[in-house]
Amino acid sequence: MRKILISSAVAVLLLTGCGEDKKVTTEVAKVTEPAKAEMAKAAESTTSVVKEATTDVKDTVMKAATELKTTVSEAATKVVDNTTAVVKETTASVVETAKTAMATGSTDSKEMANSSVTAVTQKAVEVKDTAKEAVAASVEKAKETTTAAVSATVEKTKEAVSSVAESATAKVASTVAAVTATKEATTEKAEAVKTETVAKVAAAAPSINAKVLFGACAACHGQNGEKAALGKSQIIQGWDKAKVIAALNGYKDGSYGGVMKGVMKGQVVTKSDAEIDALAEFISNL
Asked: Can you give the C-alpha Rg of the chain in angstroms?
């Protein structure tokens, strides 16, 4: 009967432990699922932000390149137009100078023409230099605009990624704390259930009456263990607990005993460890 009760207690404890372990796993899974979803969402958001930033940078560079091309084209057109105008102006001036020289009979017409040509050349150089400066200024402005746009886009991307990372980190930290709290609470509950179960099993199990057990021994060993059983055994009165336990376990497993070995094995083979312990305690106090 006692063996059945002990086996039942062990089974209850095992089932309780397994049930609580499953509860812990289930609770932890419930808490960690949102964290997994949040991490996936954070990764998706980061990828989206990077893609948008890449597109912005590409668009900015393309826009700057188009603007630069337009500026250079406009500057080149302006150079051609200005140079053409100067040439026309100078040609007209040379013609007028020649006419005047011929009308007045001046001999300095060649010098006047050369002077006009020099002026035209100088004017053309000035127009060319001005156009170069305009193109250089446009290129520099385009570079500054592009650099500023790219820097702003990179900074925006960094801030967005940092924000996503901070949000994900906070969520993970919160989840870890929740998992820890859930696991601790469930573990405490499991321990409480185990303790309560052990207490109930212990309360339900009948106590061992060592004096009643010794009644079967007293028939041969005497009420105080002062006799040699059947005139053949050792007198057990005065034995300490350890010696009694060793002898009884030896009889039980067949590793101990002399002429009384067969008789004693039949007496102790059905005894539990708890009964042997209680019986040894009783005998050691005789």
From this structure: 55
Closest CA to 228 of 266, 256, 268, 263: 263
pLDDT of residue 1: 46
pLDDT for 235 beyond 80: yes
The residue assigned the tokens 């900015």 is 60
Q: What is the pLDDT of residue 269?
A: 93
Q: Please list, in sequence order, all residues whose beta carbon lies within 8 angstroms of the beta carbon of residue 67, skipping any fewer than 6 positions away.
A: 142, 145
**Apex 96 CA angle, 94 and 101, nearest 5:** 95
Dist CA 49 CA 164 (whole Å) = 10
CA distance 179 to 28: 6
| CA 259 – CA 182 distance, rounded (Å) | 63
Q: How far apart are CA 48 and CA 42, in angstroms?
A: 10
Average per-residue pLDDT for the chain: 77
On whether the CB atoms of residues 34 and 188 are closer than 8 A, the answer is no
